[in-house]
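User: Good morning. I'm curious how 2-deoxy-2-amino glucitol-6-phosphate would be positioned relative to this chain. Could you predict the structure with it bound?
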Amino acid sequence: MCGIVGYVGERRATPVVLDGLRRLEYRGYDSAGIAIVSDGEITCTRRVGFVAALEAVVPPTLPGTTGIGHTRWATHGGVTEANAHPHLDSTNRVAVCHNGIIENHTVLRSRLEEEGIAFRSDTDTEVLAHLISKFYSGDPEAAVRQALSHIQGTWGIAVVFLDHPGLIVAARNGSPLVVGKGEGETFLASDPHALAAYTRQVVYLEDRDLVTITARGWTISRLDGAGVSRGVEVLGEEWTSEGRGEFSHHMLKEIHEQPESLARGVLGRVVPDEGGARLGGFDLTPRAIAAIRHIRVLGCGTSFHAGMVGAAAMEGLARIPATAEIASEFRYRNPVISADDLFFAVSQSGETADTLGAVREVQIKGGSVLGVVNVVGSSIARSCGRGVYVHSGPEIAVASTKAFTSQVAALLVAALSFARTRVLGPHEGKAFGEELLAVPKRVGEWLAADNPGVMEAVELCAQGKFVFFLGRGVSHAVALEGALKLKEVAYIPCMAYPAAEMKHGPIALLDKRTPVVVVVPDDVMRDKTLSSVQEVRARGARVILVHTEGDAAAQRLADVSIPVPRSSTLISPLFTVLPLQLLSFRAGLALGRDIDRPRNLAKSVTVE
Ligand code: AGP
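Assistant: Good morning! Here's the predicted structure, ligand included:
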């Protein structure tokens, strides 16, 4: 949520910072800005809209070799040029980019106003620019340190000073920052996407770190002044492939990458000969697995939906009581955490503040939490310390697709491994493992085939004022995921319900025009779900059925039929979600939406 880029070196900073902002635009795209230190001034340019709008007006020949930039997702203050970052102090000698939220900004602002400071924006960030300026007396690092000692909240900040044209001071608390090591140049960014084109050698800052960056390198200290050293890590290959390739949109590319992303998640982990699975990152002994009394899977949005499938698998396959919980709600009910509970934190970005907060709540209470994360080295992965990377590869589209299936696959592999340790025999384990291993190829075949039902469904949904999604068990999680996708990509109001709950109220919403998407694989709940379909049909609503191929009875009940491959129940979400991903993509396209950058959203939600 919001992207920060910084550069100090020998090249002109402007193109490097703008390029980094383009790569980080998926983090927030309300407005963007850049501050370059050159020729005795800080040249600050900001624009509402995409980075392209900023590029169009930034003087291309600015000579400065030190600069910072920001792409914003508005929290405090509307989407205006005045509220775009960077923010300057009153004397235009300090410029600040900030991700996060300054919780005590109101009181700080009042104090500064009493001292005669005139504010130019509605943002919380501007107080930082004035505070740093107030405490500055020649030592940039000391000024930032002192200013931050007055701040309550979260921050990832980058600060430049007119008096120090070859230097950036940055600090992190709750909002990620990474330093990139170059030859005679140093980079800064809120995530490695901005850096991978320039360097693969990076240093991740930890919370309450402060770093001073020059072209020659960097010095990291703690906010209280204590020295600290952080190791250089090498970014994996996956950070370098970001183009859309042959595809018109990142979302479409990522949908079609699922055969490969799923293969990365299951190959080498599922071991059919043993009828089980190996996940070294969990670091759990068979004895520890046998002692688990309850599993709780935490996540937000799509990751929560994947967590619902994971919890069902832990309970259904491994026979461990399991629930999925929305991470943003979890910690505020002062949850009881027992030593024999095991938590999973599911997150694509690994930076979601609500999920990170839930992880900390578990850890504060002595609980054990494993990460199920895509982005290597991200905050949640690091906080958990143990867990599994889902290996989707970079997901750029704001709407999550391949991360969902990779998360589900990782949780299914985990469930298989736990199940084998506790209750599952080798034959059942082998069958489940073999079915999992076959999924990537079967997903590829389904995606490559002509699926006319998807376009028919698009026609119904794009015309509808409201779309209703139904499913039961793991298919309820898929229904929720399908509804979330259609909301965020096509802006169509949707609701998802467990099918049998429909008659307890929401059926009142149905009329002859309502498209109802029902996820009904051929499993133990099929007949019950088809009864709900009859109730839908009796109200004259239009039925779009995602069903198992060859299920003629289900097909007969459908206005639009979308067959998917046959599978066991727990594995079915890896197939049934595919048409719903394509439905939202195609509906968004038909309605002229900005598919990869839906309005009001950002890829990683690093504020509460
Ligand atoms: C998915 O399409 C959404 N953009 C969103 O719900 C997302 O899944 C959620 O914000 C959690 O993100 P995370 O997986 O990075 O933690």
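The first helix runs from residue 13 to 24. The mean pLDDT is 93.
Let me know if you'd like a different ligand tried.
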